Amino acid sequence: MTDTRSATDREVARTKAQSHFAASEQRDKLVRDELARERAVTDAKTTKLKALRMAKEEADQKAAADAPKPTKTPAKRNRTITTR
To answer: In which band, very low, low, confident or very high, does the pLDDT at 73 lie, cut at 50, 70 and 90?
Structure first.
């Protein structure tokens, strides 16, 4: 089948299609960039929270090691006298 359109019509159609695809690629790039920024923010928050948690756990372990050992008190025996 032969294309009966003129060369200028084909060029206009090609230019229109290329601009459509270029706009689509630009939107895709913006979305990928936004996702990368959000991922970086989330990773930074996660790293900060992990560091805080590890520091708290270390402080808790140190406090537990420095605390005096609790003395065991003998358990009270419940002596009930049963009468028959």
So the answer is: confident
CB-CB contact of 3 with 10 (8 Å):
yes
* Count of Cβ atoms closer than 10 Å to residue 29 Cβ: 10
Q: What are phi and psi of 18, to 5 degrees?
A: -65, -40
The one-letter amino acid at 56: K
Q: Please state the separation of Cα 4 from the chain's center in Å.
A: 56
Residue in the block written with tokens 């008190």: 73
How far apart are the C-alpha atoms of 59 and 56, rounded to whole Å? Answer: 5
Radius of gyration (C-alpha) of the chain in whole angstroms: 37
Contact present, 17 and 24 (Cβ < 8 Å): no
- Measured CA to CA, the distance from residue 38 to residue 45 in angstroms comes to 11
* Selection from 21, 43, 17, 42 nearest residue 29 by Cα: 21
pTM of the entire predicted model = 0.53
